[in-house]
Write a structure and sequence with these properties.
7-stranded mixed sheet; alpha+beta; Alpha-Beta Plaits; 4-stranded antiparallel sheet; homodimer
Chain lengths: ~300, ~300
């Protein structure tokens, strides 16, 4: 089993998103697990899973639908993006290794160029160069900036395809990575500097919380600002720790958290960790939840 | 499947508790799901489950072991109790109804008197009289007080057996009830009046939180006091609401929560409800947790 989490540069026109999701779901064996669209980000994240072969087919169909339906020249949104299908990560689930997902990513990347003529960059475990492991390094400059650089700057040229980007679909950033939690916290203010400051202070790359990536973004349609995050190792820094830290730093600006958002799915353990910590609950864990215990002790009871 | 949660009046001598647990586990098909012993309560709670027939056998063996191993005349503990095996509730799980559990309770009660000569009271859904639905009404006066009353006051006589109580094992209060969450909050003070006041204010019977029973108890061995609770309908009043309410009321006395404790097991949904609420997480629920989604979407992935 493999999970795949394509991020598309369309979060406003839900008919388009429906068509993208339908393309993925059209492959027998590929199951949509979740979908979410954000109008300020103008971006949609689809989570699906299945056997490798079905997931690969769906991924190619997703890229095909994206190049037909999305024109980046007309795309505006607060979330950074390089492609119509912007990011295409493969995530190992039960019975699959990271190596399997790297192979799958490479295979998908090759086909996206050969069949659809969209250039491809590889990131995380599928990266071909050390300076392309981090997604934010690959995506720096975004579609508009990289159109030139991909041509003229060898260090920014696609890993497969080119020269340059696709004129309307940009490039697809294909990767293999561990499960991550995409988690956003919205602040009750329109002052973007506050979100940017908090994001900078908490992100790992500037000495903040381990395994946290963070951006400060405006949510104009909602009259808020957002600390938009990827928690790349929730056992090191779980969501409730991030929430407490952002809450504390926002309070120092006199600002409250309006709400938080999970994009896609999260593992059960992150929920259980938060529960134990926030309620000062001793000796709590998976084995204290009746459904978990029944599933393992009495498999026929479920 | 039926769950059974015997409460024994022994929480200090763990060899005795081991023997009680071993008696339950000696029946093929009965599985121990959890056990917990508290030295201040001097009480142990065992959670086990299985098919009705196995659970009934284990329950009788539990009562038999308790009458042999526990003498209430020498028992001191802060938690109210009437019997060596104090409470014996049957709880319906998948495929079993409350009526099934009532029948099981009545059957168990009859055998406990016939085979072990311990009188029995029935409570909750298994109650034979409206004034015995509530456990606290049945147990009022405890072992010491009810030894006389069970003889001389017809309104306090056992439902089965007697006259009076068993000289060392008291009586067994057998019932059928819905799943409940046994949840305790320990306060960083030795002032018992604070725990008693909070318990009185939050319990449903004095106009507090719905579906909450609460007692204020001293935890002498730990130098704390405790608000000891049963949450009889966690969807009405979940643990995190109780935690917030006790925290607020304790803070008014200048007292902090030291820790909270779950006795036995709780349902997954209570954890997910707390997570959503405490992290102001919108549109969160079971369907956002990857294991849940995979189990239902792709049953062969687990």
């Amino acid at each position: 089993m493999v999970e795949c989490v394509p991020n598309f540069s369309e979060g406003r026109n839900l008919e388009t998103v429906d068509a993208l999701v339908a393309a993925i779901a059209s492959v027998p064996g590929s199951r949509i697990l979740h979908r979410t669209s954000d109008p300020d980000h103008n971006r949609s994240v689809v989570t699906f899973a299945g056997e490798s072969e079905a997931v690969l087919k769906s991924a190619i169909l997703a890229a095909d639908a994206a190049v037909r339906l999305i024109d980046l020249n007309r795309h505006r949104g607060v979330h950074p993006r390089l492609g119509a299908l912007d990011v295409l990560p493969f995530v190992p689930l039960a019975g699959t290794s990271m190596d399997d997902c790297v192979a799958l990513a490479r295979h998908a990347g090759a086909r996206i160029w050969e069949e659809l003529h969209i250039p491809v960059y590889f990131y995380e475990a599928a990266a071909l160069r050390p300076d392309r492991v981090r997604l934010e390094d690959v995506r720096r400059g975004q579609f508009e900036g990289l159109r030139q650089a991909a041509f003229f700057d060898e260090s920014r040229a696609p890993d497969i395809g080119g020269p340059g980007l696709h004129p309307t679909a940009g490039a697809v950033i294909v990767g293999a990575r561990k499960f991550l939690i995409a988690y956003n916290i919205n602040l009750q203010t329109t002052d973007l500097e506050i979100a940017k400051t908090i994001a900078r202070d908490i992100r790992e790359s500037s000495g903040g919380l381990p395994a946290v990536k963070a951006l400060g973004l405006p949510l104009q349609l909602r009259g808020l600002v957002q600390v938009s995050m990827n928690l790349t190792d929730f056992e090191q820094t779980p969501p409730h720790v991030v929430y407490a830290e952002v809450s504390r730093r926002a309070a120092a600006f006199g600002v409250e958290i309006e709400a938080s958002e999970l994009i896609g799915l999260m593992p059960r353990k992150a929920v259980e960790m938060a529960f134990a910590e926030l309620m000062k609950l001793r000796q709590f864990g998976s084995a204290r939840i009746i459904e978990n215990v029944l599933e393992s002790a009495l498999p026929d009871s479920a």
